[in-house]
């Protein structure tokens, strides 16, 4: 499933409410630094010269939509056909978006769903700090399982590196984790084992995020051999965090 326009929606998001989507990646294929086995956009398609919308195009499309929108928005959300922070003008686009939000719908939040891989870039960190909601992915807290689930393009990427990057926000972000089981290329995938959960709980305590979103696969996935974690099990995963006082949102 690909989003085929720069602005889409508003849609009702199970996690964010009434959300107007902004697409910064190509409209005809996915572009991401991960290739998650559960990605609703499918597998990455290598393209030599991907075409991204310009900062000016995004600003014009967003202004046109916001100026005619009747409904109340909960959020303007950057996500879609890949990793939005890959856009070279991401910081400028966020600055434009905040100005337009303030002008047309000051109640709406500006949210970014990111896979956390670009947090080594100061411009990306600066942009995310300007937003209301930084929703940042950590699907597993061991290198082996993170690599099996997310299939990072940078095969040397480590969980320790991601955690160090996430610590730049001093807990002022939402941690998002997709829980799943299955297999890919003959290797088992399961981030719900006691060993995996123990490492993930430890990462949560290190990061102390202001909110934790845990969710399950909801639509068709590129890897077919995956299964959805039942709601009762998601409740059990959340329970120790709730007991510690964390704000945990379960989408299951
Ligand atoms: S990070 Fe998001 S867009 Fe990228 S592959 Fe994973 S689910 Fe898809």
Summarize the structure.
The protein is an alpha/beta fold and 252 residues long.
Bound molecules: iron/sulfur cluster
Percentage of β-strand residues: 15-25%
Total number of beta strands: 10
What structural category arises from helix and sheet content? alpha/beta
Cα distance spanning the termini: 20 Å
Instruction: Catalogue the unreliable spans.
Output: none
Net shape: globular
Number of helices: 7
Oligomerization category of the chains in this entry = single chain
Proportion of helical residues: 25-40%
**Overall pLDDT, averaged?**
95
Largest sheet: number of strands, sense, barrel closure:
10 strands, mixed
H and E order: EEHEHEHEHHEEHEEHE
Calculate Rg over CA atoms.
Answer: 18 Å
Structure overview:
Strand 3, helix 2 and strand 4 (109-114) form a beta-alpha-beta unit. The chain has seven helices and ten strands. 32% of the residues lie in helices and 22% in strands. It is α/β, with parallel strands linked by helices and 252 residues long. The protein is globular and about 50 Å long. The longest helix has 15 residues, at 90-104. Bound molecules: iron/sulfur cluster.
Keywords:
globular, 10-stranded mixed beta sheet, single chain, 22% strand, 252 residues, binds iron/sulfur cluster, alpha/beta, 7 helices
Secondary structure: elements and pairs:
Blueprint: E1 7-13, E2 17-22, H1 55-68, E3 75-78, H2 90-104, E4 109-114, H3 122-130, E5 133-137, H4 143-150, H5 159-166, E6 174-184, E7 187-190, H6 194-207, E8 211-216, E9 226-228, H7 231-243, E10 248-251
Parallel strand pairs: 2-3, 3-4, 4-5, 5-6, 6-8, 8-10
Antiparallel strand pairs: 1-2, 6-7, 6-9
Helix pairs in contact: 1-2, 2-3
This protein binds iron/sulfur cluster.
């Amino acid at each position: 499933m690909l989003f085929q326009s720069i602005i889409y929606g508003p849609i009702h998001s199970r996690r964010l409410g009434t959300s107007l989507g902004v697409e910064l990646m190509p409209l005809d294929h996915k572009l991401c630094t991960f290739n998650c086995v559960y990605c609703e956009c499918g597998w990455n398609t290598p393209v030599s010269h991907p075409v991204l919308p310009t900062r000016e195009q995004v600003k014009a499309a967003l202004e046109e939509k916001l100026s005619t929108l009747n409904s109340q928005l909960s959020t303007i959300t950057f996500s879609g056909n890949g990793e939005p922070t890959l856009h070279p003008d991401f910081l400028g686009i966020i600055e434009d978006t905040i100005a337009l939000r303030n002008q047309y719908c000051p109640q709406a939040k500006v949210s970014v769903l990111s896979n956390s891989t670009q947090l080594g870039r100061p411009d990306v960190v600066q942009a995310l700090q300007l937003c209301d909601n930084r929703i940042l992915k950590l699907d597993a807290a061991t290198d082996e399982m993170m690599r099996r689930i997310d299939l990072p393009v940078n095969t040397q990427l480590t969980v320790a590196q991601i955690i160090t990057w996430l610590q730049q926000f001093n807990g002022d972000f939402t941690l998002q984790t997709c829980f799943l089981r299955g297999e890919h290329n003959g290797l088992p995938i399961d981030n719900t084992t006691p060993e995996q959960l123990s490492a993930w709980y430890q990462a949560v305590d290190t990061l102390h995020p202001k909110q934790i979103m845990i969710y399950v696969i909801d639509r068709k996935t590129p890897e077919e051999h995956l299964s959805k974690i039942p709601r009762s099990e998601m409740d059990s995963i959340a329970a120790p965090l709730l007991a510690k006082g964390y704000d945990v949102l379960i989408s299951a």
